[in-house]
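Subject: design request, 196 residues
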């Protein structure tokens, strides 16, 4: 015979998950909490806002890469299918790095896809399939929007003394974006496969 439980279900230590919990928001989006990182409130607030814009756009870029990876067509299907997936994985790593930087500043990183859609500057594509060159062009446009914003944010954030955010924007967002643009753009060169 089993011994009787020492705690009632739903009580601490009872083994029952405490589900359906509700609570008040502990830090609103658009605010920063104080952390001892040697940067003032206004600098951290500004950096958090700018990084969240880049984060929202990068999350949309990641989603576009995955969508286009699934929808590739034609003679270069295999190469593009693999390349777009590789690019998507790199963008996902940047999403994580941006979100963690925002949190380390004491701000709140945008994470809910519905909130991301409100913040992004990247236009929404059609829900269906577009021609391959159009999908690649759409990715190039998204990259350019992010690159322009990231460079501007990096310069302004550096002027405020936040070298950590500046480094992330330049070394990860800009350098990765530039390389991915190069690879994408080369697929739009009209070069015959069998004759010169």
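Subject: RE: design request

Done. Sequence follows.
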């Amino acid at each position: 015979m089993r011994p009787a439980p020492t705690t009632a279900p739903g009580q601490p230590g009872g083994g029952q998950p405490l589900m359906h919990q509700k609570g008040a928001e502990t830090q609103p989006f658009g605010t920063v909490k104080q952390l001892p990182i040697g940067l003032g409130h206004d600098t951290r607030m500004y950096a958090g806002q700018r990084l969240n814009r880049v984060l929202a756009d990068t999350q949309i870029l990641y989603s576009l890469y995955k969508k286009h990876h699934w929808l590739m067509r034609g003679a270069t299907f295999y190469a593009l299918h693999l390349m777009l997936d590789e690019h998507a994985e790199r963008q996902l790593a940047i999403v994580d790095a941006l979100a963690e930087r925002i949190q380390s500043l004491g701000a709140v990183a945008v994470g809910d896809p519905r909130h991301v859609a409100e913040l992004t500057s990247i236009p929404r594509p059609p829900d269906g399939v577009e021609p391959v060159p159009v999908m690649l062009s759409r990715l190039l446009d998204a990259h350019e929007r992010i690159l322009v914003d990231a460079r501007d944010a990096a310069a302004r954030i550096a002027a405020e003394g936040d070298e950590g955010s500046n480094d992330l924007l330049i070394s990860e967002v800009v350098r990765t974006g530039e390389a991915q643009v190069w690879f994408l753009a080369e697929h739009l060169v009209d070069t015959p496969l069998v004759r010169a």
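The helical segments are 41-71, 77-104, 113-119, 132-159, 163-186.
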